[in-house]
Amino acid sequence: MRLVVRAAEVTGAERLIDITAAHVDSCLYHGEASLDFVARLVDGDAHVSVPTTLNVGAVDLLHPDLNRGDPATVGRGRLLMDRYRALGARPTFTCAPYQLADSRPALGEQVAWGESNAIAFCNSVLGARTNRYGDFLDIAAAITGRVPDAGLHRTDARRATLVLRLADDVPARLRNADALAPVLGLTLGRRAGSGVAAIDGLPPGQSEDRLKAIAAAAASSGSVAMFHVVGSTPEASTLDEATRGIETPVEELTLAELRAARDQLTSGAAESLAAISLGTPHASVEELERYASLLAGRRVDARIECLVSTGRDVLATAEERGIAGRLRDAGVELLVDTCSYIAPILRHAAGPVMTDSAKWAYYAPGNIGAEVVFGSTEECIASAVAGRVVRDDGVWGEA
Amino acid sequence: MTVGGRTLVLTEGLSLWGGMDPATGELIDAHHPQRGANLAGRVVIMPSGRGSSSSASVLAEAVRAGTAPAAILLREPDLILSIGAAVAAELYGVDVPVAVLSPEELAAIPDGAEVVVGPDGVRRA
Questions:
Q1: What is the model's pTM?
Q2: Which CATH architecture has domain A2-154?
Q3: Active-site residue numbers of B?
């Protein structure tokens, strides 16, 4: 409770409000401080008071052979995950709790979520309300069931204060391409910082997987906790709804800026490849099905390590539907409970590694020393089969 | 509480998770203009926090490892860094002030200057 009150002081809140659920990121091991902190909670006999999901940890508990870190560190990572489970949190171990049917808070519901991509998705796509609850405060909120009444918990802070409009030179087919979403998110994070922006100019009804890609990228290049996509997110059926009819600055996003942002995600000039990493944030069932369809009848080249990260509950569904088997038969490895850029998982971490995730591309060079090639999902799968980088710049228009 | 150190001005916000190695204090974000700088013991000045919600853990771990900044000065409040500092103080008895100053005040502090950060603000040592 002291942490929650400290948070109220920092945010200037006058009161605390009740939450209905929490998503806790503190279960990822960052060193002994992670265990020192949870030891205080365990010693105090703490227990979560609201339904609580857990974010990724440092270890794949279901596929122990995939963990390539030193055994002592893997053990500490596993111990931390066990400690949080013992506090009463569900062992979901996913960065995409919004993919679980029973962990999707409703429009307007007050929750406390950690994990930057999940926070942005929760506010923007579900319309539930959370601030950016970092490690320690997320579990403190889950235990007390309370958070400061501040920021995005309040209606007035959820209005778009900046409109990012796709310029006329952005081709229609790019606006409706999966490849645009992560790049658009990267640009959104740079332009919006910690503010709430509305993206205008995308076809209505963008899929949750695309909105996930925008959220994850924007929360990596910036501190974006909420955004609107006009015609796709629940508090922005129109631009007027997103801005509440208040005059709001408009900035244009040109094709040149988007192409430059895309190119910056590639850290080397590699044509050869060591690995492909998909599923950051964790792949949905629909995405797993898409990978399997794109691979249909073909196999990952024997020289390439092709890794897909997903949640253990999504994997269970994919196993039932035969999707996981199709992927494994095509030479894909499936990783759960963690992610390939936060723990030693890849056999060829130095890369070059190709990914369709702006978040993976953003953090992997610093975290695991990988050289990164960024491409669309289709390009990643085509490259996995070919054993080298395959590009198709079609949707990005003429250079 | 008063702490002192040499300033390190970061021209962009930094996510400590994925941006700082708590074992060494080095800035490892490949996209950051000050990549390669070392944050340990410095009074770090940056526009804002950024990115990962794990930065609170990284700050606490850096305090444990002795590689944390002496203080962090920002233009806007950052709940994640403030909570990381509060937990580190509770666990390890080391205070890393996370303070908000106006853009004008921050701009007046030069890079590499010896300063003292206390309850009354920041002054040259």
A1: 0.95
A2: 2-Layer Sandwich (3.30)
A3: 52
